[in-house]
Amino acid sequence: MRDDFLPYGRQWIDEDDIQAVVNVLKSDYLTTGPAIKEFEDQLKSVTGAEYVVAISNGTAALHAACFAAGIGEGDEVITTPMTFAATANAVLYCGGTPVFADIDPETYNIDPEDIRRKITDKTKAIIPVHYTGQPCDMDEIMKIAKEHNLIVIEDAAHALGAEYKGRKIGSIGDMTTFSFHPVKPITTGEGGAITTNNKEFYDKLMLFRSHGITRDQKMLLNDNAAWYYEQHFLGYNYRMTDIQAALGCSQLNKLEFFLQKRRKYAKMYSEAFKDLEGVIIPKQLDDTLSGWHLYVLQLDTDKIRPDRRVIFDELRIHNIGVNVHYIPVYYHPYYQKLGYKKGLCPNAEKLYERIITLPLFPKMSEEDIMYVIKIVKELVDTYRVG
Questions:
Q1: Quick check: 247 and 21 in contact, CB under 8 A?
Q2: At CA 88, angle to CA 83 and CA 90, rounded to 5?
């Protein structure tokens, strides 16, 4: 057994990253300075989006996007339960109501057909989540949105650098949100961004991240003196610092390297487990390229008798920092108090009972991957029925 603990995710920080932060610390601007625009410009290149708004974190990005979409009291927003709670919480922040559509049992992403079933005259938007970095069926989702005049906000917290039919994630939906938490494809410590090709959304997002206040002469309603500014609506202080942005710029320079590592290690896992009786490997949609933020292994509980917790705990005993992504959002006590009940999304609920997230991050070595493979195989062989 290895002596050190192998987490499911960990950031990669090198001397280039450190120097980029030091350079900002020595500069005139620690926030609202030139590093922000530089970071936003780099993200435009990475995503193919026309506009980018850097923001304080991924949850703030979702909140801002819901605000810009005009989500309010009485509006319903369809999303997946297989996500971190922030996706649905952002709808609640704006006074809307999250409606959970079930997942495709093969890809684990939101099922477009269940989206159709959940649409009502109150539906205002759809928030598909590119779960684990695997792009959703965006052609079908955008088709549904067009038919019903809905806004699409992609939650791409897992999917920076992922591709759907040759298009980069970040340039397909009406808005796309990203997270730069330390375990994500790149990190700024905390941090996030929203991409869009819509100038109206962009203008709202820019105001929203800074109290709803503007100094833009073209937007001012009254005095246009140099010192003058106006608050146009109730916004938030969701600004990103230049310290974070500088780190982000340095990290983006390594994004392709990070993605190559993740894809290589995911392939090693899939090759090792594809013929292993008792487990199911993640399926990838045709014409997509996953960002592989997570590698989720599904246990075939018809062929493995102990419950998932036994194997999970055994892997932890072997210093493998497995996790589970995610507890269905409406299982949380807060959502239960709001009236959501178990049974809403049977496919998601069944998946939740069977999945384990294996370690996957660029700083892992091939030896780390082989160790995880070895222990997983040993446990599956031990607990397989017959």
A1: yes
A2: 125
Catalytic residue among 118, 124, 168, 184: 184
First vs last C-alpha separation in the chain: 27
At residue 2, φ and ψ (nearest 5 deg) are -70, 155
Per DSSP, the three-state class of 355 is strand
Buried/exposed 329-359: b ≥16 CB within 10 Å, e otherwise: bbbeeebeeeebeeebbebbbebbebbbbbb
Verdict on whether the full-model pTM lies above 0.85: yes
**Over the range 171-196, which residues count as b (16 or more CB within 10 Å of their CB) and which as e?**
bbbbbbbbbbbebbbbbbbbbbbbbb
What is each CA distance from 205 to 213, 236, 249, 310, 357, in whole angstroms?
Answer: 11, 10, 21, 46, 34
> For this structure, is 184 an active site residue?
yes
Average pLDDT over the chain reads 97
Q: How far apart are CA 33 and CA 28, in angstroms?
A: 8
What pLDDT sits at residue 224? 75
**Longest Cα pair distance anywhere in the chain, in angstroms?**
81
User: At 285, is the pLDDT very low, low, confident or very high (cuts 50, 70, 90)?
Assistant: confident
